[in-house]
Amino acid sequence: MISSGDMPDAIAPSSPPAFGGARPLPDLALDLVPRSGPPVARDVALTLLRRQLGRIQSRVQEAFEEHALSGLAAARALAELTDGLISAIHAYTLAQVAPEHAMAGQAEPAHAFAAASEPPFALAATGGYGRGVLGPFSDIDLLFLSDSPLGPRGRRAVEFMLYLLWDLGLKVGHATRSIRECLEDARADATIQTALLDGRFLAGERGVFERFDAAFSQARQDWGLGQFLQSKRAERTARHKRYGDSPYLVEPHIKEGRGGLRDIQTMYWLARYAFGVQRMPELVGPESPGGGLLTEREARAFRRAWDFLWTVRFHLHYVTGRAEERLTFDLQPVVGARMGYTRHGKQDGVERFMKHLFLTARDVVRLSHLLEPAIERAALGAPAVQKSEEPGLTAAGIALADGKLIFAPDKDIAADPAVMLRLVRAARNRGLELHPLAQRALIRNASHAQALRDDPDAAAIFLDLLQGRDSHRWIRVLNEVGFLSRYIPDWARIVGLMQFDTYHVFTVEEHTIEAIGVLNQLERGELEEAVPVASELIGQLQSHRALYVATLLHDIAKGRGGDHSELGAGLALEICPRLGLTTEETETVSWLVLNHLLVSQTAFKRDIDDPKTILDIAEVVQSPERLRLLLVLTVADMRAVGPKVWNGWKATLLRELYWRVAEVLAGGLSVPERDVRVSRARQAAAALMADQPPEAVEQFLNLGYPGYWLSFDPETHVRHAGLIRDAEARGAPLTVSTRVLESRAVTEVTVYCTDHPGLFSRIAGALAVAGASIVDARIHTMTNGRALDTFWVQDAQGGAFDAPHKLARLSVLIEQALSGSIDLEQEILKVRREPARLRAVQVPGRVVIDNHASNTHTVIELNGRDRPGLLHDMTAAISEQGLQIASAHITTYGVRAVDVFYVKDVFGLKIENERKLASLRIALLAALGSPSAEPV
């Protein structure tokens, strides 16, 4: 087996650890078991051991935090110093259990058991400790190994030693097995095989360990690599599914996630199992096992990734004071700062740190694709490469192996780099997998893609892959092997780029590939129920190719500072001609990139019942085809952000906006004169109320101001009429009605009561206390002086607020809030609890006041950190300024809230007085909690 001094470069501890001149630790074994006399009492020993453990931990931490040790060196040092502690405990244990035979000066104290007619045992390290690396809070895995099952004294020694370790507060994983038991258990369990593969002798009877080492080596040869390889692949698949299938998740698991430490360890286990190598550089060069599975550059890349990830892991452990392996939002800026990442140009230090981390994870994935198939081929034999029966494949330099596509053995990729694209296209067209050796070749030859940048034939294949069947899958392959970054240089700038917020789940390039995947789903009809309009429109598009290229490029300029839409539109003008797009297609792509946020920002931030909103967007779009393209791109972009972003309410708003703009572009009368529209709405409501007394109908028709009639459909008007008639008949001062709209994933809450200043604010506060999130609101004062306010709310998961007990509580809370029987501010404070991991994400407050977006209202846009009761605070500040709120539109992006209000003054006019506007800005910034923020 591998000893601590000859582990692979990417794994072995250094010997001895460097501590910059620190004094050597005392010889603990002599303190515990003096050369003359009995061993010290157990309580004394425990005190000495705790003191030594404290020295070890503090010395390594101090050296690491002073940057005298990197993460890997610190892990090695901690393991080596722990070896001394464990060895001293072992010697003390034997002195206590067999005092007549074990003295401190004995070379082989384990012979005490042989003298007592009991089998001697060896103490071995397994797991990470066996590999000679330890995290500050990692488990210590030990194996008590013997030729035959231990006798009473041996079992007593094991128990004595374990209790000492537990009393020291160490987390210990342990097993007690004979050599035969080890082999029997390992044969049936690849996890045990793996643990034993990491085995390293620590103390006791060395001969026992050497016999086990030889037996286990022979057993591995007998079992073969196949079963171990299959098990490790299944284990890795399950692990990635649990901790993150993508190496680009914005809160990655450093140890178990894809591209993490465990993936590197898996490569070592396979190499160790197959060839018995002791160092990764042993796989370099033609004389190495397997004939040179790695280049020197690749071996160095393994070491760099291993060292970097260990450094991150050490910081995580020290910052949290526990074995924390997930790098959450609150820890990212702390760890990044500790590692020396500071702001550089347009990028914050934390974003630079996370990009380095994601690029490292990407390298680990690529290295795995490089090494694993090479190990399999060398250990199990090269696959039988067959010429395809299709002449076209053979002529293209492509062959078959194990039913998968591979480059022909005599194919020189450097001389014909387009064969990389032909291989991927052939796999797509025939529904075949790429052979692992083909992926290895793609990775090693990705740099040749730069020679294809002005090749029209290569561009045609690339565009075919981009817009063809399952295109996101093949674009992801081209990205992971490194081809895409070489082929489109601007793509390389977004690889591993994250935005430090809680809205985006993926890095920019992974989000882009997910968006292409949504287009694929739309074309296959898989989203007809969720987004019926986009599913229908994608089949009607004339600019199909432009849509896919625009999706590929819509975020290409992120991370450069400035408006990424504007910058991206400029880049599209440069990139599209090189991809073979026509002048018309290039202009369409550039326009789509420039305006890819237009539809979503309008739908979620503006009143789409305001005619000017519709006319403004129609003026920008101008073309029905562009409107179709923009809607489909918006759906793909939003659904690719993360699983919690899309919901039925957002789908409804986008759909309604699309149809209204489409009607205008078609020359329809979607936005006729206001009086005409009001008259039509009143007539439609009256027609539906034909069975009611004429005087009741006339009374209701006289209650609503024009804004009310334009805000709802006729069916809703009729419902309101019934609610008002019932409330007036009962003389009810307050009526609260709730209606669950499953198709829109919202619950509609209607409140009818006497109007008064601050009414909206108090209702919003009650809804916050109830746990309801407001996504939209319409505020109306009727001609009888009463308010008819409608709120659309969701639960915390983005679904309808529909639990009966919650709806009942919501109604009670609204009544209590309006009657003043509860202290709203205090109740809101009780629900303002935020997970610690989200507190690090900063959202500066921002106030935008726009008197051009609407002909009749002043539009206020507020950006700030979301929190329960934020809407209550905002609307209270607006009411205190003497303004009337007509409608509110609420959108959240992770922890960032964007709230838009349409307001008038007490005379029903826009607010245009500069002094009044300045006072309003100050009040709103204070309510946002950002008094120092810059107003706009």
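The record above closes out task 2.4. Task 2.5 opens with a second protein, given below.
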Amino acid sequence: MAGSEDSRNESRGSPELTPDGRRVAVRVQGIVQGVGFRPTVYQLAERHRLGGWVRNQPDGVRIEVAGAAADVKAFLGDLWDKAPPLARIVSVEVTELPFEPRPTFDILESHGSQNRSTLVSPDVATCRDCIRELFDPTDRGFGYPFINCTNCGPRYTIIRDIPYDREKTTMARFAMCPECLREYRDPRDRRFHAQPNACWSCGPNIWLEDPQGNRLSAGRRALADAVERLKEGQILAVKGLGGFHLAVEATGEERVRRLRRRKIREEKPFAVMFRDLEAVTRYCRVSPEESALLEAPERPIVLLRKRGKTSGEGTTPIAEAVAPRNRFLGAFLPYTPLHHLLFFESPYEALVMTSGNRSDEPIVTENDEARSHLREIADAFLLHDRDIHIRCDDSVVRLFGGAPRPLRRARGYVPVPIFLEAAGPSVLAVGGELKNTICITRGAEAFVSQHIGDLRNLETLRAFERNVDHLQRILEIRPERVAHDLHPDYLSTQWAERQDRFPVIAVQHHHAHIASVLAERKISGPVLGLALDGAGYGPDGTIWGGELLWVDAERFRRLGRFRHLRLPGGDRAVLEPWRTAVSALYLLAGGDVGKAYPDILNTFPARERSVVLAMLERRLNCPLTSSCGRVFDAVSAILGVRHRVTYEGQAAVELEQAAQADSGRYVGAVYRRDDLWILDPLPMIRLLVEDLRRGVAPGILSMRFHNGLALLLAESLEKAREATGLDRVALSGGVFQNLTLSELLEADLVGRGFEVFTHREVPPNDACISLGQAYVARARLFRGR
């Protein structure tokens, strides 16, 4: 829980106190609604023999207590030390009042206010107590797919407004039965004011449909019938917490391939939900830290290293089609009662559970939407009638150096804010194009939305707009500015520029990357920034992506960049990495690439190869890029790892996956040109090709490339330190999702005496752009005042 000793003891006013009596008003801010905070306060007041009251307000929880001074003091200490497990206290403000005895302690109805500074809880996995009741035949919650309490269940995805009360959620239409109402009203009950509280008699229900919309079965029977469909190899669309999943048995090769064909998702890995942690360990190598992540209340997808083909005696391996050419598997555990019941009814330990959507569209949330969008994919639909108000994908996390770093931040983590170093003006930042998120700031809080997706179609733009409206409403914020990317063709940029009521601030893409690290790590003053990704719009009209920067909150200066490569065909080169490989070889050969590297060229498509060479010769449709991501593409294609990609970053991902342990490295060059340090990887590529011709295994070549690239980056930062005197380094960009490179570079920099800052709360990919944009925009607003 956050907070300082000062915030514990802050008080206002000094009224006369009786020798033994004390009365105080308390305001608690943080995640304190919908997490069992009021019943905890009630029980603490009873334990300490205090009278008074507690209630929810839009600015947090308000408390008044009166009693013996020693008991009041003990009560205030317990507010911090004995808060419920899902609470996150940011501050406790205490105001002394004239002493008046209070005979009872009451929980009052929620009270409205114009100051909405409370924090909304994320959705939380089903707790152990509810799971125990779910499988207890003597409990009235036995087998109920929506069992929950104040320690678990849906939150953010069902909230329409705050304060967090039932009438302001999608549960409003379900009137509680007498038994549920009794639990809801009893401060000593685990379900006291659990807003989604319900049962078979009064709450949401489930049913099974075919693709034509015919209802096949309902209730308990629907679960059994759904499992029968899975046994038959069918694809099941399952309505979950923040959207739909598409489920199929994970060890059936042809079943998984059928899902790929129907979803038009050729090779991008699917996530696998396992029955329990023991099942995960049969298929994956799991460290204690990874076990803790898997079982955390957030229940993210965790990238784990696969075990070998034979995962254990009698165990059928996970189908290769789940994560082709990948040593890692995205594994997660059941997080809703419905998930637990599906596994209980089925013979399976592992089910593919991938986002329920068509290719490149947002995850589906509504029943009618599922019927129209997923009918060509799913063979049956397991539906329910609890509405999802806001879509929220599963989060993805990976351990880096023993510490978790998010790769996709969504369910379980949103809308917990990033706490900034200081309060400031409210701004709305609309992010980039890929892996889009938005960010709204309020005081010293930055609310980064869940993963929205790639802003390349109307459906995703609508999801983007809905998230903007939703966050502004529940936070009751009218931003002073809208921050956006420099790229004029991004849909987010175009949306921002259409908002006549808000002045706009443009923020360069890689400045935003590094600024996002400053924001979440609370760093003041300038740093050296290394921003490595696939593409970002540069002020000079070229495509940036391998940038060495001087950065503070409001400004940046380019200190260096990767050597330019040309991209034959522009965006087409991103989809066909062999084009970038030809471009790199063309530079190495001084133009006579056909004579210098015929053996490498002959591995690329013959007809298109001659066209690409002509484009390079004439510099026709060959934009310049300094992208580090494109260097990975070139190396991947030269080694024959990946010539064409079916998802973003695939060539780099598979190049890392191919790496085998080796201490060798290829040495690049760093030199000055036009007042910039140029990071030149071409000497590395020349050495790599020589080893390839000697028959060195591609896995060894990949490792030597990674080792050499880490050295090149470290040496460029050494030169920047000599020039600037700065020894603090911030690392950001999609390239830093590469575990091998990240760990090599961070260890090297620490060894050289640098202080290294990386992401901890938001992903290093473009999902962090909105946070960085907001941070820069706030700083520029400060400067203008």
